[in-house]
Amino acid sequence: MDIKVTTIAPENMKPKPHDESMLGFGKLVTDHFFTMKFSGERGWHDAAIEPYRPLELDPASMCLHYGQEIFEGMKAYRGKDGSIYLFRPEENIKRMRVSAERLCMPEPDSEIFMEALKKLVLLEKDWIPYGIGTSLYIRPTMIATEAALGVHPSDSYLFFIIVGPVGAYYPEGFSPTKIYVSEDYVRASLGGVGYCKAAGNYAASLYASKKASEMGYTQVLWLDAAEKKYPEEVGTSNIFFVIGDELITPPLTGSILPGITRDSVIQIARSWNLNVLQKSISMDEILKAHKEGLLKEAFASGTAAIVSPVGQFYFRDDEHIINEGKVGSLTERLYNEILQIQYGEKEDPFGWRVKIA
Ligand code: COI
User: Fold this and answer.
1) pLDDT value at 172 more than 90
2) Is the pLDDT at 171 greater than 80, yes or no?
3) What are the domain boundaries of the chain?
4) What architecture does CATH give domain 4-166?
5) How far apart are alpha carbons 261 and 268 in whole angstroms?
6) What is the pLDDT of residues 51-85, one digit of tens each?
7) What is residue 275's predicted lDDT score, i.e. its pLDDT?
């Protein structure tokens, strides 16, 4: 299938941001987007890049009623020499296909998906910011478009990709965040869709996040739904703890999103001969390690947040400060390593970088 490209007249293009330090996350979108339709009869069809515009949807579209919607998050980076890179894009494509299967949606064709990513990013390459830590965020999304109110898988879908320049995800930037440990609310349970990038997972997280924010915390540390004992994720990211000489992250049991940055952290840390364990660790064990001075660092990992240090967590009416509220040395080393690989400033022994220009 060919991608039909229609470009916007230069005089109608949006102004590009001048001050990269003000980018924040997800506030700007570029001039074009990619769309592709699916119907039972025609399969995937009408792949196009066109000027950015509002979507026209029937108010009965199923995505609006039953949340049959999935998405991905990835980034394009500008290297110092002007090269443009994607980071492990085939992993996002695979994960979107996994999410699609679980949500009874058609799997987007991998080849057209990759071609669309490359074509759109290249068309919008002047939007890619220059500073390290900034990038062009890419948001592939799929929604159910059949106009029907019976609860069943839709028979038609729209897949689209929007992109926009971003800086740090958290207002704190790379400063340690304050985390609220939630025992009242959970993000996902076993057998559910926690391992998918389903839009509904994020809607379900808002209430606890709002409570945490009202109390002055940046994000929520989510515990397992069954026992409310074991940390699973933090905010919209995976979580890591450095305890003694071990780097520990919860295992992918089904309620946790298999983060691509999570996997990159694990592979990099193992290549440094660190002892990385994917195991469930309870809040009790974490508190005990903290008391004994063994909890050295904690950090979140995600495409948007990259590697983000956790400076303290609030659990059962107590504040627990980690590493005196400072960025840990391993957290910083991993952050720098990932960034340098992503921006083409370092060898890429893992073959993760995809140079597209
Ligand atoms: C990402 O890290 O790309 C995410 O998808 C998190 C997002 C919900 C902001």
Assistant:
1) no
2) no
3) 4-166, 177-341
4) 2-Layer Sandwich (3.30)
5) 10
6) 999 999 999 999 999 999 999 999 999 999 999 99
7) 98
> Residues 1-46: pLDDT tens digits?
899 999 999 999 999 999 999 999 999 999 999 999 999 999 999 9
Contact present, 231 and 222 (Cβ < 8 Å): yes
Residue 304 CB less than 6 A away from ligand 1: yes
Residue 26 CA: which ligand 1 atom is closest?
9
The reply to whether ligand 1 has any atom less than 6 angstroms from the CB of 192 is no
**Closest-CA residue to 357 (of 140, 84, 86, 126):** 84
Q: Is the pLDDT of residue 328 over 90?
A: yes
Model pTM score: 0.96
Q: Which atom of ligand 1 is nearest to the CA of 73?
A: 3
What is the per-residue pLDDT for 170? 75
Task: State whether residue 96 is helix, strand or coil.
Answer: helix
Query: CATH homologous superfamily of domain 177-341?
Result: D-amino Acid Aminotransferase, subunit A, domain 2 (3.20.10.10)
Beta strands in the chain (DSSP E): 4-5, 32-39, 43-51, 69-71, 74-78, 84-87, 135-144, 156-166, 177-182, 219-223, 231-234, 237-243, 246-249, 275-278, 295-302, 306-315, 318-321, 353-355
Instruction: Give me ligand 1 centre to Cα 351, in Å.
Output: 23
CB of residue 328 inside a 6 A radius of ligand 1: no
Per-residue pLDDT tens for 100-135? Answer: 999 999 999 999 999 999 999 999 999 999 998 899
Distance CA(130)–CA(153), nearest Å, equals 42
Distance of CA 135 to the CA centre of its chain: 13
CB of 141 sitting under 6 A from ligand 1: no
Q: Output the six-digit token pair for 224.
A: 């397992």
Give the distance (Å) from ligand 1 centre to CA of residue 147.
28
CB 259 less than 6 A from any atom of ligand 1: no
| Pocket flag, ligand 1, residue 303 (CB < 6 Å) | yes
- What does the alpha-carbon distance between residue 260 and residue 137 come to, in Å, rounded to a whole number? 15
Q: What is the DSSP letter of 15?
A: P
